[in-house]
Amino acid sequence: MQNRPSFDQVYMQFAETIALRSTCKRLQVGTVITSGDYRKVLAVGYNGNATGLPNTCDTDIPGNCGCLHSEENAVINCDSPRETEKFVFVTHLPCTMCAKRLINLGNVKRILYKNEYRKKDALDILKKAGIDVRQFS
């Protein structure tokens, strides 16, 4: 019998796949937001320039490339009500501003990330907001 992947594995793989659409020169990041029961994909996002602008970074300066973050794009794309319970799957630990955006999305219960980010301040922010944050292994 074939080994059946968990929902966490499926959605993390989806986040990694959607990250391949990123046009950022430094780091490709993907985000998938699902319902709390895993039955619906509510939004996806990847990092890159704004729609209609060149598919490249504005500068080569790390941390200032001008790309919208994947979490930011996923929040923009998510039209589910605040009351809907949400799980977030992201290829990298969110930055502090994306952590705050995810908090304001409403009812985010869990964030699962695969790779560390150069700054880890978001962990404290998310935990203070009562969001379960775990690294995917």
Q: Which features does this protein show?
A:
alpha/beta, single chain, five-stranded mixed beta sheet, 137 residues
How does this structure look, described?
- This protein has 137 residues and is of the alpha/beta class.
- Helices cover 28% and strands 23% of the residues.
- It has four helices and five strands, in the order αββαβαβαβ.
- The protein has helices at residues 7-19, 70-77, 96-105, 121-128, and strands spanning 30-35, 41-46, 86-92, 108-115, 132-135.
- It has a five-stranded mixed beta sheet with strand order 2-1-3-4-5, with helices on both faces.
- Strand 4 (108-115), helix 4 and strand 5 (132-135) form a beta-alpha-beta unit.
- The longest helix is centred in the N-terminal third of the chain and has 13 residues, at 7-19.
- It starts with 6 loop residues before the first helix and ends with a strand.
- The mean pLDDT is 95.
Q: H/E series, N to C?
A: HEEHEHEHE
Tally of helical segments: 4
Strands of the widest sheet, in order across it, are 2-1-3-4-5
Weakly predicted, low-confidence segments: none
Shape: globular
DSSP strand content: 15-25%
Q: What is the overall pLDDT average?
A: 95
Determine the structural class based on helices, strands and strand pairing. Answer: alpha/beta
- How many strands in all? 5
Q: Give me the Rg, rounded.
A: 14 Å
Largest sheet: 5 strands, mixed
Helical proportion?
A: 25-40%
- First and last CA, distance: 23 Å
